[in-house]
Design a protein that fits this description.
Elements (H helix, E strand, L loop, with lengths): L3 E5 L4 H12 L3 E6 L14 E4 L15 E4 L6 H6 L1 H22 L3 E7 L22 H20 L2 E7 L1 E3 L15 H9 L6 E4 L11 E2 L1 E3 H14 L5 E6 L5 E2 H12 L5 E4 L8 E2 L4 H7 L8 H16 L1
Parallel strand pairs: 1-2, 1-4, 2-3, 4-5, 5-6, 6-11, 7-10, 8-13, 9-14
Antiparallel strand pairs: 9-12
Helix pairs in contact: 1-6, 3-4, 5-7, 5-9, 7-9
This protein binds nicotinamide-adenine-dinucleotide.
C-alpha cells in the first residue's frame, strides 16, 4: 500500500494499532497526538511523530497527505456526563478545526472513529446503521455531532469519508494494547483483578433482561478493527459519507467475559454486584453487514477466549 497518512490519536490504543497496520502495509505514517491520554512510546516504530493538537492541524497538513485517519478524542462516558463541555470542545471543536485544515490543504479523504454510543438504547438488535441515533451521554452525542459534520463536509465540499462505529474494542496487537487511565473497559479491568491490582470486578446490574441478568456487549478484536480502516481508505468515494458498524454480531455477557478471563488466566476473579449504571443498555450487538458488503471486511478473530488471551499477554508484558 502506498501513500502518506495522518493518524490523529496514533499514540492511543486503537490509533497505534491502525498506524502499525498501515506501516506493515507499506504506507508512510505521521502521527499527530497531544499525549493527553496517549503515550509517546505507543507510537509505532517507523511512524513520524508530531506532539500537537488536532486544533492546530493546519500547521502540519499539506497536499502531500493522501488521507486522515481520525482517532483523537476523549472517550470516557462517565466523565462526559460531568464535564460535557470538555467533550464538545475536544471532540466536536477539534474535529471542526481538523476538517477545516483538510479543506485548506486539499486532503479529501477521511476515516473517522465513531461509536456504538451514537445509537443509545437500541430498540432492536442487532443494530443496523439506519437505527435511530439517540445517545444517552455527551460522549455519544459529541461523536454523533461529528458524524453529522462529516456528512455536511462530504455533500458541500466533496470529502470522501467513512465513519466506523466501533462496538467494544478489545485485545492487543503485539506491543500495542489498551492502557486507558482511568480504565473503564471491562476486559482490561477484569485482567487487573487477575493481576492482583484490584480485589474484585464490579458487575453493574444482574437484573437485566438477558440470559444471566448481566449486560451483553459485542467484543471486536482491535486487529480486525484495524483491517477495516485500511479497507475503508480504499472504499471512500468523493462526496460520500459511508457509515459502517464494526462488531462481530455476537453478544457476550459480563459474566461470560469474567468466566473467560478465569479460564484464560487461571486466576479466580471475585465478583461484586453493584447497582446498574444509568444509560447502560441491556444489549449492544452490531449488525456488521454494511462493513462486509461495502468494505469487503471479514473479521477473523471473533473468538472471545482469543481476544482475552491477547489482552492478557499484553497486560502481563507491561506488568513484567
Ligand atoms: N476503545 C474503544 O472501545 C472505542 C469504542 C468506540 C469508539 N472509540 C473511539 O476510538 C478512538 C480511539 O479510542 P482509544 O480507545 O484508542 O482512546 P485513547 O484515549 O487510547 O486514544 C485517543 C488518543 O487521542 C489523543 N488526543 C485526544 N485529544 C487530542 C487532541 N485534541 N489533539 C491530539 N491528540 C488528541 C490522546 O492523547 C490519545 O492518544 C476515539 O475517538 C474513541 O472515541 C473507541
Amino acid at each position: 500500500m502506498s501513500g502518506k497518512y495522518l493518524v490523529t490519536g496514533g499514540a492511543g490504543y486503537v490509533g497505534s494499532v491502525v498506524a502499525r497496520h498501515l506501516l506493515e502495509a507499506g504506507a508512510e505514517v505521521v502521527v499527530l497526538d497531544n499525549l493527553s491520554t496517549g503515550f509517546r512510546e505507543g507510537v509505532p516504530t517507523g511512524a513520524s511523530f508530531i506532539e500537537g493538537d488536532i486544533r492546530d492541524a493546519a500547521k502540519w497538513l499539506d497536499s502531500s497527505f493522501d488521507a486522515v485517519l481520525h482517532f483523537a478524542a476523549f472517550s470516557q462516558v462517565g466523565e462526559s456526563v460531568v464535564k460535557p463541555e470538555k467533550y464538545w470542545d475536544n471532540n466536536v471543536g477539534g474535529t471542526m478545526a481538523l476538517l477545516g485544515a483538510m479543506r485548506e490543504a486539499g486532503v479529501r479523504k477521511l476515516v473517522f472513529s465513531s461509536t456504538a454510543a451514537t445509537y443509545g438504547e437500541p430498540k432492536e438488535v442487532p443494530i443496523v446503521e439506519s437505527a435511530p441515533t439517540q445517545p444517552t451521554n455527551p460522549y455519544g452525542a459529541s461523536k454523533l455531532a461529528v458524524d453529522h459534520m462529516i456528512t455536511g463536509e462530504a455533500v458541500a465540499h466533496g470529502l470522501g469519508a467513512v465513519s466506523l462505529r466501533y462496538f467494544n474494542v478489545a485485545g492487543a496487537y503485539g506491543d500495542c494494547g489498551e492502557r486507558h487511565d482511568p480504565e473503564s473497559h471491562l476486559i482490561p479491568l477484569v485482567l487487573q483483578v487477575a493481576q492482583g491490582k484490584r480485589d474484585a470486578i464490579s458487575v453493574y446490574g444482574d437484573d437485566y433482561p438477558t440470559p444471566d441478568g448481566t449486560c451483553v456487549r459485542d467484543y471486536i478484536h482491535v486487529a480486525d478493527l484495524a483491517e477495516a480502516h485500511l479497507l475503508a481508505l480504499e472504499a471512500a468515494q468523493p462526496g460520500e459519507h459511508l457509515i459502517c458498524n464494526l462488531g462481530n454480531g455476537n453478544g457476550f455477557s459480563v459474566r461470560q467475559v469474567v468466566e473467560t478471563v478465569r479460564q484464560v488466566t487461571g486466576h479466580p476473579i471475585p465478583e461484586v454486584i453493584a447497582p446498574r449504571r444509568g444509560g447502560d443498555p441491556a444489549v449492544l450487538v452490531a449488525s456488521a453487514d454494511t462493513a462486509r458488503e461495502r468494505l469487503g471486511w471479514k473479521p477473523s478473530r471473533a473468538d472471545l477466549a482469543g481476544i482475552v488471551a491477547d489482552a492478557w499477554e499484553f497486560a502481563q508484558r507491561r506488568a513484567g
